[in-house]
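Support reply, case 0932

Customer input (verbatim):
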Amino acid sequence: MLNFQLSPPQLELQRKAREFALKEILPLAWYYDEIDETPLEVLQKAHAAGLINGDIPEEYGGKGWGLIESVVLTEELAAACPGLATTIFDNSLGMEPLVLSKNESLKKRYFSEILKDFKLICFATSEPTMGSDVAGIRCRAERDGNDYILNGTKYWITNGGISDYMSVFATVDPDSQHEGICAFLVERSWEGVSIGRKIPKMGQRGSNTTGINFKDVRVPAENILAPPGEGFMLAMQTFARTRPAFGARISDFQAIQHKIAEMYQKVETSRLLVWKAAWEADQGLDPTIAASIAKFYSTETCLEVANEALQIFAGYGYTKMFPIEKLLRDARLFRIYEGTSEVQRYIVSGYALHAYQPVMPPLDELPIHRDLDPTGTAGTPDHTAWRCRICGYVHYGESPPEECPYCFFPDSAFKEM
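Our regenerated output:
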C-alpha cells in the first residue's frame, strides 16, 4: 500500500531545513545573487548543522539518507534560494559515483574525510562541446602503468570552483563511445588541475559554475572509480536515468527542426499582425482591435521564441557570454508595458462579445439541417419545429415535448423555429 506520509525523523529534517532556510539563506540570497558569489560561510553552517552529506551510507559513518530526505531538504532550501539549494545538494551528486563505485578502500578514505572536515565534491561529466551526450566525452585518460594521465576540460561544473574533490569521467578512446568511458576521484590540489573563471549566468548566480582543466594530471590506481567500460554505466546510475547519445548536429533532430519551424511561424504571424495594425492606422481607420491583437500575440510570441532559443542553445544560452539570456530578460517586459496582455485580452473579448457583428445567425436560429425526431413525424408541413436551446435537438409537433429526450431539459428550453 502506498504511503507518502513523512516519518518523524523526516519531519524533523523538514523543520530543521526550513528553519535554516529562513535564518541563514533567505537574508543573504538576494545579495549574493547580485554580486554573483557563493557564500561559503552558509555552506559551512549547513555542514555544521548536518544538512550536507547525510546520504553517505551508514556503513561509512553517514546517516544513510534516501532520496526522500534529499527531496525534503532541497525543497525547503530552494524556497529561499534555488541557487544555494543547488550548491548544497551538489555534494550529493558529486559523491554519488563514489557511493556506487566498487572501490571500497576509496569509499572508506574519502567518506571519512568528507564527514570529518568541511569538504566539497563536484560531479564533472559535461564538456565545452558536450552536455547530455555522455558517450561523446573527449577528456582523455591514458594508461601509464597502473595509473592514468588525464588531459582535457570539463565545463558547466557546479561547485567546480570551490570543491576539494571531483568525480571525473573521461575516456581512453573517444572513438569507442560507451566502452571507453572511465571515472576517477581527483583532488583539486593535484598538479595539473586548474579552475577556469566563474561562468556568468542568467540565474542561479549563488551557485558556483566553472570549467576545470586537466594537463597531464596523474591519477593513482587507488583513485579509480570505474575502469574503462564501466564508467558509462556508473554515470547513468548517477543520473538515475539514461541520456541520449547524439553524435550529430542538433539541427538534424526532428524535435529541434519542429521548434525552429514553430518559432519562425510565430514570428511571421506576429509581423503580419503588426503590419495590419500599422496599415489600418495609416489608412485613417480605427486600429484599436488590430493593434490590441498584435500587441498581446506578438509580445507573447517574442517571449516564447526567446525562451525556445535559450533551450536550443542549452547551457550556453543561459550564460552572459551569448545574447540569448539578455533577449529573454528584455522580452519579458513586452507583456507588461503599453498595456498588459490581460488588458489587451479584455479589449478584444469586449469587442468580440459586444461589438462584432457576425454574418451567421445565432445557434438557436440556424436552419434545421437534419432530422432527429424519433417519432417519425419530422419534416412534415403540418407540424411546427421546436429546437432545444440546450442540446440542439429538433422536435416536430404542435407544442414542444414535456422534456427533451436527449438532455432532459423541460419544454421551456425549446424555441419555436
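We compared this against your earlier run and they match. Two observations from our side: The mean pLDDT is 89. The first helix runs from residue 8 to 35. Please reopen the case if you see a mismatch on your end.
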